[in-house]
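OP here, attaching both records as promised.
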Amino acid sequence: MAASVGNVPETLIDDKIDALQGELRRLGRVVVAFSGGADSAFLAAVAHHVLADDAHAVTAVSPSLAGDEEADCRALAAEWGLRWTPVVTHEMERAAYRLNDTDRCFHCKAELMDVVGPIAAASGATVVLGVNLDDLGDHRPGQLAAEKGGATFPLVTAGFTKADVRAASLALGLRTWDKPAAACLASRVPYGTEVTLGLLSQVDRAEAALKRLGFAELRVRHYGDTARIEVPLDRLPEVVAKRAEVVSAVKAAGYAYVTLDLEGFRSGNLNDAHLGSKP
């Protein structure tokens, strides 16, 4: 039996990495939308290895990006020697984004492409996003906006699932291989609740405080003056054990009530609740 990394056969990992490298060589010059998550970090690292300075990692900086994520992008770029640029995006100036209906992500990615697209065009590069095969099955209107803006998804072309990305990242020695998913802060807000600067800052402060207490994988869902905390099921007892510290940390961010979701952490569960999809 072939060796495996993260329960994915090593030969399969090698084949998919080869396919990804071939796709990046075909593109020639790329601008990687680099959020610092496992997918975009893996794509940026491989693109840098294959294309050197013809791979340009660009991080969109806005109130919807958690402060610690921007810092980690900067740190990763320095560690890996990436050609990296932070750019400011202005999705908060788009009324359709602030409205926060089910197409919010479309308007966010449209703003990203409006900012990053010209950077790519100036050097004849293609904008690439770290979308994997698993992402195609969820409600992701942002992918449509990216495609309309001319972006491509090399991980999809090379056949990568999320598990493949993590296994390949581990095989390549990337510290992001097990990094928890970190969607934009607006994803903590139920559809129909207006997205504001103050709200995003409140969520960011609450999550940052809980991470300092040792909870790396979590969400603070915003329901007015109530915060609903999600952590993996095996961490629920620890939240209860640290109840006083957790409550103090979240209330310091401006919430009046602190609740714990007994179903645990579920990425994208606001989509499930609003759209009726299954987790």
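Record two, same layout:
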Amino acid sequence: MIVECDACHARYQYDETRFAGKPAKRLRCSRCRTIFEVVNTRAFEAQPALKPRPAPDETAIRRPGTRSKTTPRPDRPPGALKLPPDRKLSLAVIAGPDAGRIYAIEKPRVVIGREDVDLALDDPEISRHHAAIEVAGERITVVDLGSSNGTHVGEQAVEEAPLENQSEFTIGGSTLMLIVTAG
């Protein structure tokens, strides 16, 4: 299919199999560096079930002291988080200020943010402790940590969402992709 940048109108050939069943993808124009969205007109696979982020109201606001953003959630039993022994996990930054960088996931819970975290990104639109990647064997989840701008999978703001190989999620102005390889 042919896609066109919204800003400079450069045209590119885009392989439709790269949608991997997703309804849309965000691309960066190699000419003007603008990020634009391409819609999959042949989306036929259902997206994985996502846990939507609650609408902002008094019950959804996290108050200081309710939960530390750097420790696992209380609903996770001790020892539930564990890296798979036969796989290597990485996060690739595919859009944003740190685009092109790849980070190895070497522990079952990795906190992403601007400072005092496991994976620090140079993105002013993300919170100090923005999101976490939690690995429980084969199950990999992105969890929003009460960030200001939210965590998005596709166009949907989520509080928690499952990830698979080559799943993408956006925090602030950065889009990251999970990469799972044989270990």
